[in-house]
Structure formats: structure tokens, C-alpha cells
Amino acid sequence: MDITTKLLEMGVSTWATDIITQLPVPATENFEIGKTLPENVGFIYGISIYADSLDPVGNTLISTTQAQGMYINIRDGATTFFPAMKLSDFLSEVAGSPIVRAEKFVPVNIKAFDLSTSSYSNPNLFTGAFIRLKLWYIQKGEWQRVKKHFTFDKK
User: Fold this and answer.
1) φ and ψ of 25, to 5 deg
2) Which of 55, 69, 105, 116 is packed most tightly, with the most Cβ within 10 A?
3) pTM of the full predicted structure?
4) What CATH number has the domain bearing residue 86?
5) Structural domain containing residue 131
């Protein structure tokens, strides 16, 4: 059973938030996401990225090709959750491909953290676009309720 089905069965409200980062000009090979998460984020269960279009406010998003040549390092201080994963790993739709992932996010298991220490790698020095990182999450109060009623296997 996937996490969204379990959360739905439990009556847990789920949310999503976008962390929007502009590619720096002039281009740099590495740059911090530099954002803090909203304070109500308690547990992140999915991550996705949009590409090949404009976002709701008209920002040009990175292309699928750019996502294939850029990386994200998700960190919380000294802890690395995902070292150097391609941004394209978080796409549910890839331009020019008839294949679409059924899930609109990559499942993860991350308690709330300070995203400001995470960074993007841009070895191709792309500019002129925005990265829209979407985090799928449970709010703090709901997460406390889930932890009380769900047994976590410690194997």
C-alpha cells in the first residue's frame, strides 16, 4: 500500500508547497536553494519538479533537458538526504516521451528540515529559468497524530 492511500484511509490532510529558485545570472556551477520551509511542514512524503512550461505566475521553468543536466543535494546541516540526484529524477512527465509516471511525485521519507542548506548543481551553467521544487507533505499537527496511530517497523 502506498503512503497516499494510507493517509487517505486515516483521514489525514495532505498538502503541497512549491520552493521556487531562479537560476543565477551570471551562471554558477553550485548555488544554494536558500529557502526555509513553511513552519507547518511536519513530514515530507513526496518530491517533484515541473519542467517545459510556464508556472502560474509566468516564470519560465527549466526544460526537461536542463533537468537532465542539473542536480540537487538535499541536506539538513551535516545530514545529506539525497546526494547529487538529477532533477529529472523528480519529473513525472518528460517532454517528447509518451511515458508519464502514475505518481506525480517521488516517494520520500523526510521529517521537516531546513532546506536553506540544500543546493543545486548546474555543471552546464544554464540560466534564464526557474526551478519549481514541489514538496508533498503532512502538517505538523497531523504528523503527530499519524505517529501516535501508526506502528513504524524498526527492522
Assistant:
1) -125, 120
2) 105
3) 0.86
4) 2.60.120
5) 16-140
